[in-house]
Amino acid sequence: MSDKIERQAFAGRIVLLGFGSIGQGVLPLLLRHVELAPGQVSIITADENGRAVAAEYGVDYHDTPLDPNNYRALLERRLGRGDVLVNCSTDVSSIALIRFCQERGALYVDTCIEPWAGGYTDASVAPAARTNYALRETALALKRPGMPTAVITHGANPGLISHLVKEALLNIARDCGRVAGMPADRDGWARLAQALNIRVIHIAERDTQVAEPRKAPGEFVNTWSVEGFVGEGCQPAELGWGSHERHFPADGRRHAAGCKAAIYLNRPGASTRVRTWTPLAGAIQGFLITHSESISLADFLTLGGDDSPEYRPTVHYAYHPCDDAVLSLHELAGRNWQMQSSHRLVKDEIVSGIDELGVLLLGHERGAYWYGSRLGIEEARRLAPHNSATSLQVTAPVMAAVIWALRHPDRGLVEPEEMDHAEVMTLVRPYLGEVVGEYSHWTPLLGRGRLFEEDIDRDDPWQFKNFRVT
């Protein structure tokens, strides 16, 4: 890590809301990249777990969970015009916080759009209302010209992934001998993806980190937020729905309003597996966990009408978490999605492994192209304290989003696709380990039907019918 870091000037206050793995990992990055004294930062979180880390940096620490009744009182004396709220929490409504920041003139950054506690898993609420599609549409309704900047969904994915997609499109265009200047707007990016025949985009991730001790029966283990992973895993599986798709899933559901760029399946994402590929892991099966980028990228790259667009790629997450998290998910499913009595977020206990996180663009003339970050646990610890490989791929984009908001304070509500990807990548690239692009001839049909006959469409390997494990 270079000692020559240009620090962002800032005289206001920052509130870190939530201080689990992401909050603890982003604090040292903010202090490194923003001109901050510890007294300018305060932490509000739900428990005592991060108090020692806050004390290490001399930052005020308040262990008071936020709820609909107290969040205004707790935040009003800490946030005013030009201050920044960095939301790394779970079970606190992003919509309520964005509205509050708009009223106060404060800037806002988060990594996902969260509901109040129980919003992901309230069985009395229709599945469509528990989707990220619904949360995103509610957030987009808060767009107002000239309002304080609110950068939403800007962690690793969603967030970093959208910038990697833009770099990947430019790389493919270059390698295919196509003259492609930097697109100037949303339409330009969509037309570039269409010209390259990008049919499908996977967010393809394989986490191989291992912690000691290993998972015990009745315990949920993960390398990032346990509550966050369980919440999104219990949401309906969601994906951006491509214009080339011919086979609609039997349990697929469309949305009646909004951008119409995505559908959901009437089942949890943590029970839905899809085939994907990463360079080091090779062919793997990941979970189709819902994430906002599956919707926002599909929407951003759409050409034409919402209901029958001229062009739109299919976009979805294909996540193979660390092995202990996979075992935890299987156990969670066996408990009918009732969370285990014990859970453990591993960071210091990790002894080996990497997180291979990137985008897999499929359908172009060179087949498949994976582009992303390979970050090992030892390098992550060397690059930034209080981080694992998984957390650093999130915390660096959070830091970048804060700096971007400070540089562009009056953009209103902003999604990652609307930001200058080159500006963001300059800030985050030093923390991503090895950033690589690799071509492959892999398709989801490779080796299919060897042991048993399968209902697949061999005429078009990029149909979602061919990705889904039925």
How does this structure look, described?
The strands form 6 sheets. A 7-stranded parallel sheet has the order 3-2-1-4-5-6-20, with helices on both faces. The chain has a 5-stranded mixed sheet with strand order 15-7-18-19-21. By secondary structure, the chain is α/β, with parallel strands linked by helices. The chain has 2 domains: 14-151, 3-Layer(aba) Sandwich (Rossmann fold), CATH 3.40.50; 160-390 and 429-467, Dihydrodipicolinate Reductase, domain 2 (2-Layer Sandwich). It has helices spanning 21-33, 51-57, 71-76, 94-104, 132-140, 160-175, 186-195, 226-234, 292-300, 323-334, 377-383, 389-407, 421-428, 464-467; strands at 14-17, 41-45, 60-63, 84-87, 107-110, 150-151, 200-207, 210-211, 219-222, 236-240, 252-254, 262-268, 273-278, 282-287, 314-320, 342-345, 350-352, 354-364, 367-376, 413-414, 434-440. The longest helix has 19 residues, at 389-407. The chain has 14 helices and 21 strands. Helix 1 links the parallel strand 1 and strand 2. 30% of the residues lie in helices and 23% in strands. The mean pLDDT is 96.
Secondary structure: elements and pairs:
Layout: E1 14-17, H1 21-33, E2 41-45, H2 51-57, E3 60-63, H3 71-76, E4 84-87, H4 94-104, E5 107-110, H5 132-140, E6 150-151, H6 160-175, H7 186-195, E7 200-207, E8 210-211, E9 219-222, H8 226-234, E10 236-240, E11 252-254, E12 262-268, E13 273-278, E14 282-287, H9 292-300, E15 314-320, H10 323-334, E16 342-345, E17 350-352, E18 354-364, E19 367-376, H11 377-383, H12 389-407, E20 413-414, H13 421-428, E21 434-440, H14 464-467
Parallel strand pairs: 1-2, 1-4, 2-3, 4-5, 5-6, 6-20, 7-15, 9-16
Antiparallel strand pairs: 7-18, 8-17, 10-12, 11-12, 13-14, 18-19, 19-21
